[in-house]
Protein 1
Amino acid sequence: MKTLKNMIYSKTLSGAFIVLIFWYVLHLTIGSKIIPGPYETIVTFFRLMTGTLLLHMLVSLFRITAAMVISMGIGVPLGLWMGLSERADSVLTPVAYILYPIPKVAFLPIFMVIFGLGNSSKIILIISIVVFQILLAVRDGVKEIPTELHDSVRSLGLSRWQTYTNLVFPAVLPKIISALRVSIGVCIATLFFSENFATTYGIGYFIMNCWVMVDYVQMFAGILAMSLMGILIFKVIDFMERKICPWI
């Protein structure tokens, strides 16, 4: 276990080192204040973390976490139902196929009118995107279970709950983890967009406010904070995968 952790930390540090080198080369090549150097940005980042930047990060992290948890609470049961019931699949899958491709950011003004200008409209916007990824991933995971395994479970006389816990859940858990991992980028991008409207807290607001104030160092410090927030979420998902899907 210690060797695995050391490998993970080593890969993370190696990736960060490569990004810093590319960033520094780009800074030297552009030769403009628009792209400040890594050292200046990192120093500014730690200075701002003692002020309001940490609050902006925590607010954004809360919005993403709430949206992902609620999306799982909706998408997993519906996905299981669609995967196990042909009738539910025939009714709900066409609805998902119609709604999923629609760019949900277009509905942000409607969400703000209905749910207010606070956290609710931003969380619901993210849910409207992520829930379809989880729902379809779970449905596909259930449908990919070989028929022979279902027959084996029936021959053993397992109850419905035992079938779920011993066959269905282990089969769809990797799909759920993959869906969460893929949805992180979409979550952060959507959150960045939504935090530019009717809010005074959040990483998106902080970055765009620094851009308006022509403070590029603080703007890049905000981008660095967003990147670290994404890394934190990725690491939490990786930890969950090692704990609940040890066979992967």
Protein 2
Amino acid sequence: MDSTQLLGYIGALIVGLVLGLIGGGGSILTVPLLVYLLGYNPVIATAYSLFVVGASSMVGTYQKYKKGFVDFKTGLAFSFPSFVAVYLSRRYLVPGIPDTLFSFGDYSLTKEMGIMIFFAIIMLLASFSMIKKEKNNNIISKSQPYYKTFIQGLTIGTITGLIGAGGGFLYVPALVVWANIPMKKAVGTSLVIVTINSLIGFIGDVQTLEIEWIFLLSFTLISIIGIILGVFISKFISGKKLKKGFGFFVLIMAVYIIYKELK
């Protein structure tokens, strides 16, 4: 095993830790890790990210369920429109994107660059939501009509399908604001959605891509070890401080990706 592979596996452990601690953000680390450190094509990297995050989140869901922090009814309500959108995105939308999005003189924006830049933009939005100070609001909102949940699920599912993300960093605030679920339960419930979305999205990729199963399974196994550790450690760390610190890290990563792709 060379130093690059070793760093890759250390990164896999960190991916799992992040998922276990804050219920999202695994793909924010996985995709740049696979692209910039291990040299994978962004399309392949986003596919692998779906499998790694989905399998890790499945274990995390069980860990959170044992602690009573999973609302399966709400999670499945969000999951149905989301996994339909994720599957269709990975099966048809991503393969259908042209190799060159546009050209301007000697400059060309390729499909791979476009995916990474879009990914970075989503990372920026996610970082701001993690960094900003949460308002203490005692007003209890009512659960919204299902058609709104359906539209929101389709929207988030399409975005997560394009960038190869589980979507935990999008679903946690959605569950808190729209479904009126307490933060700890929202984190656990988001893992249900992430598991379903990611693994079904990956099924769409299996039909169009060649998969390096030995690498993918070993990387995933280490991430699963990480998520088990993360769920355990979460009992001893302030969630708010961790979330804000990770938000700043995501912000730096997003700026780096944009710089790397556009330079």
Protein 3
Amino acid sequence: MHRPVLALLAALACLTLAACGGGGGESEAPSDPIEQVPEDTPGLREAVKEARKPDATSFPPVEGKTLQQIADLVRSGPQAALATSVLTTGENRFTFGVIGQDGKPIYGPTAIYVAPTPEQPAQGPFAAPADILLTQDRYKSKQAATDTDPFAAVYAAQVEFDKAGQWAVLVATRRDGQLVGAPTQVKVVTKAQDKVPDVGEKAPRVATDTLETVKGDETLLDTRDPVSDMHTDFATVVGKKPVALLFATPQLCQSRVCGPVADIALQMRAKYGKQVEFIHQEVFVDNNQQKGLRPPLQAFNLPTEPWLFVIDKQGKVTARLEGSFGVDAFEAAVRTAL
């Protein structure tokens, strides 16, 4: 299974958040996710707070410059770790991390620039707000509860690509009063080449695993510790009520971002569970990577994981998120079906 998020994970080995509370009760989620960012690391909360609200006008304007000319205006050093693999012509949610030379994540106001090649005119800057990955303690896994260096947030920008092919990307972040940059490149495909169900399309009516289908073996149903109770059969509810369907493997995901999204799903269910059915589907047959993907992932044509699909009561996809997504993106996706 191809995992572009491995770049994010290899660089962010500290990101081991699975989900720790039980099934999660019907209580309101916190109004501001910034409250979950630890205060014991000096400057962390303030840095993430600033990173959540970047101002595109504070970054160098393109004014006909090439991407290379924009890159010449920033200081090199950090690396961009991509968390999105499926990019198509048109508008995309582009997610990534920024990693310093010390291997630790960098948080600060961030934007990205793109161009087919570094020598062609740049497009941007596209603001990339930081999205917090941390939840209330009651929704964390045992792993997350004991993690002494949690990864706090991931960046996401809305970027439009006007043609398929290779694209050059420059990530620009303000840190300690300086603008630092990280180059990378991505492949963009046409809409026709994208086989993953998209917004506006009918979701495949596929049966997802329940305690009955795994013959009562909770360890096969869910790698989360402790196991959640988000395991209703998707086929029995789709078309009847809104559904938030999460494909993730908290224990086996090599990107190590699957755990946090399971935590966030539980936290979102505490707020929206009366209106939306939240379902978590594990990824590998018998939780064995050598046995391949489970049938629900094959039905959705998923090339990576994790993925979140929000489906309205008519059975149409209203939102899809890939790779790494935090509290803000998850909640915004859920609300598209209400």
Protein 4
Amino acid sequence: MNLPKRHNILMVVTALAVTLFFGCESNFKEVQKINFSEFVPAGDTDMATTKYTDSGRITGVLISPKMLDYSNVSFPFTEFPKGIDVTLYDKKGKRTFIKSNYAVSYKNTSIIDLQGKVKITSEAGQMLETEQLFFDQKNEWFYTERKFKLTDVKGVSNGQGIDFSKDFKVINSQRISGEIEADE
């Protein structure tokens, strides 16, 4: 059985194409492996307790069931996938309590992103609840653009967008509604 010359050339070209295709796929997978860097934490801690100090004075205590340290990446951060419980102390020893279901602390910016049922309570009885809140550690300032509920001895207010000092002495809120007792 003699096949036409054109048919033989087609079979040879097909065989070469298939060989090249599978050869390139194999090399491509190896190239992918070379460029792949595994994203794993430098540290993994269960039941973490961290105390923050300034000149020998405790300024904060952070407790978390799980802490992942990503200090080995180009934009280092620490992740708390199971939430945090933080107590902040001012210079007079007054405390502010913070709880959230999830948190990420960015080392280069000193910003902490708190997410999921965030609740902040002061010793004076003020309480703020929201779904996401940022804390600027350098300026000791909280802020969010999310909806919030602020409970105070003077009343309850709701709104969207708020920023305030960690001791609740300065509060700037946006789109607020509620009933608050006014000073006479």
